Every structure is written in C-alpha cells, then in structure tokens.
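Contributing new complexes? Match this layout with phosphoric acid mono(formamide)ester.
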Amino acid sequence: MKNLLDIESLNIEDIKLVLKRADFYKNLLKSDKSEQKKYTNILSDRVILTMFFENSTRTLTSFQMAAYRLGAKIVNWDVSSSSLSKGETFSDTLRCISGYGFDAVVVRHHEFKAPYTVQNSMECPVINAGDSWRAHPSQALLDAYTLKSLKGRIEGLKVAICGDVIHSRVANSNIELLGKMGADIHIIAPPALCPDVSKYAHVTSFDTLEEGLVGCDAVMMLRNQKERMEAADIPDDAQYFRDYGLTQERLSIAKSDAIVLQPGPMNRNVEIADDVVDDPIKSKIFEQMANGLPVRMAIFDLILSEEY
Ligand code: CP
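Output block (do not edit by hand):
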C-alpha cells in the first residue's frame, strides 16, 4: 500500500493484509510492555502530518495514538490557526508544506476527493481520514475488522446499515468494502436519506427497520448528518426516533446473536435508544471505536515501515 485514499483503490488482498496486521497489533496491545517495546520504534524516524478540516474525536485521536505507539512523531496542522485565514489558497498551503519533508499526511476534508488533491501536491503517502460524503476508508477497515473478529468471517454476513445513508462516507466505504469481502448489505433509510444503490448486486434497500432487519447478523446505525443536509431533509428528532430509531423491540427482529455497531459520534435516543447503546451483550460500539487504534497502527505500518 502506497496511500489509503478510498476502498475502491484497494484489492481484496490489501484489505486482508490490513485486517491481519490489525489483529497482530490488537494482540500486541494486550501483551506485556516488554513485548510491546519491540514495536515502539519501527517508525521512529518518521514524521506524520495531520490536516483536519472537520472536527474529529475517534479518527484524529486514534491516528495520533497509533503513530506514538509505533514511535513516529506527529505534527498537527490546525486549520483555525493556519494562514488560510490570511487568504492563502489550499493549493499554495500544500506546496509550502510539501517542502518540509513529511513522511505521510493524514487528511480529513469536507470537499469531494480532497485527499487526491493533497496526493497530487505531496511526494509522501496520503491517508484519507474522511472526505465529503464519499469515503472514510480507515473507518470501513476498522468496521470490517470488528465484524471479522466478532463473527469470525465477513463473507456471507448480512449487515444492515441504517439511517442517513445518503450523506454518510462511512456507509459509502462500507458498501464498497463489505461487497468486496462477500457480505450482503441491507440499506434501511427513509426515502429522502437513501442513495441509489441499484449498481450494487450485494445491496438491497428497505424503507423500514421492521422489513430490513430480518435475518441480519449485524446492525450498523448512522448519525443524522445535519451538517450535510438540506433544511428540507432534516427530520424532527422525536419523529425520526419513532420511525427509524433502533429500540430493543426492533433489534429483536434481527438474528438473536446480532451485534450492534455505530461508527460514532452517535445521538442517543435519536438514531439509537440508550438501552441498545448500553446493551452489555449486543452492543459492540465502544469495542468498535477501540479497534480504531490497532487498525490505524496496521495502516501506518503497511504504508510506512520498511518491512513492506
Ligand atoms: N467515526 C468517526 O469518523 O468519528 P470522528 O468524526 O470522531 O473521527
């Protein structure tokens, strides 16, 4: 892997390699400190730049922690204190930064395919931490890792992706990745928030959770992304929860051993009921978030270490 721009540019072997390496790092993080020390310096001569044009808790923090755990150093470029506020263009900013010799850039941007713009301006590898509604490849990789580690496989699973699918880069990357790995996907969304999925043979869309959850092995809930919605698309929160909120009653329609995922951030009692988030057996949401660390360690390792 030279870059991580989207799932479309990965093949199945790349995906399997990330999942395998992530498993290695997940086990390493559970091992004693002396074992972990063998890997704390594998990227010790690398300096990684993060450029986040949108807020983030999980992605930014886990990429930073992954870098530190492998011995790399991180420079955080902060949009609010940058010279973009003085009228400098993004393209001139990238030309400037490309002269400093970073070993990789991790970028999140609201514009469609912005990581490709960064890649065209920099000599170093670029990792997409989420662009527009289009792609969030490291999230899809950690979701796949979570599914595989909890269900033992991805092929043949039936995964429901529910809610504001049309504005979701997570959904888009998951549809690509889970399709490549042989899963079937049920998209469950109100008509206004459901994209055209007719080009995908592995995707079926449903208007209601009652229809779409039947037979599902995993249920992935999505946040209503109001920052990307037209005013007309924004449903009233209480009505949305009545129509599309995941409750225990609705979850019982899925398979009895179905797990619940949510990439985060989540709005409790808008998309998902409190007692589903906190269900000690079925909810794997915080385990999924924690898997961001080993998966992003694997991504840095595969892109930056000399072994590959
Ligand atoms: N899932 C995700 O991308 O979360 P953040 O926006 O907090 O990074």
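Reviewers usually confirm one structural detail per submission. For this one: The pocket of phosphoric acid mono(formamide)ester is lined by residues 56-59, 130, 139, 263-265 (CB under 6 Å).
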